[in-house]
């Protein structure tokens, strides 16, 4: 009778837990979304989405507001990303 067999791959420690990898891009995007300029553009995007969603017949979309928000966030990220990469 065998209880709890473990398979150990050559080169891997037996009891060491695998470290969770964190994407630095996602971390920086979250931090940049909290900056003053990004918060402002995100508020404009949300107002547009609310306005467009409340109308049944409209040709308006929120493309401009979405691009403004993404541009502001990516601009912030671009200045910080490569300093955190090893």
From TrEMBL:
One of its GO terms (cellular component) is mitochondrial inner membrane. Residues 23-86 form the Ubiquinol-cytochrome C reductase hinge domain. It is found in: Mitochondrion inner membrane. Keywords: Disulfide bond, Electron transport, Membrane, Mitochondrion, Mitochondrion inner membrane, Respiratory chain, Transport. Coiled coil: none annotated. Residues 1-23 are annotated as: Disordered. The keyword Cell membrane does not apply. Disulfide bonds join 32-76, 48-62. GO terms for biological process: mitochondrial electron transport, ubiquinol to cytochrome c. Residues 13-23 have a biased composition (Acidic residues). It is a peripheral membrane protein. InterPro entries: Cyt_b-c1_6, Ubol_cytC_Rdtase_hinge_dom, Ubol_cytC_Rdtase_hinge_dom_sf. Its main location: mitochondrion. Belongs to the UQCRH/QCR6 family. Component of the ubiquinol-cytochrome c oxidoreductase, a multisubunit transmembrane complex that is part of the mitochondrial electron transport chain which drives oxidative phosphorylation. PANTHER family: CYTOCHROME B-C1 COMPLEX SUBUNIT 6, MITOCHONDRIAL (PTHR15336:SF0), UBIQUINOL-CYTOCHROME C REDUCTASE COMPLEX 7.8 KDA PROTEIN (PTHR15336). This is Cytochrome b-c1 complex subunit 6. The lineage of its organism: Eukaryota, Metazoa, Chordata, Craniata, Vertebrata.
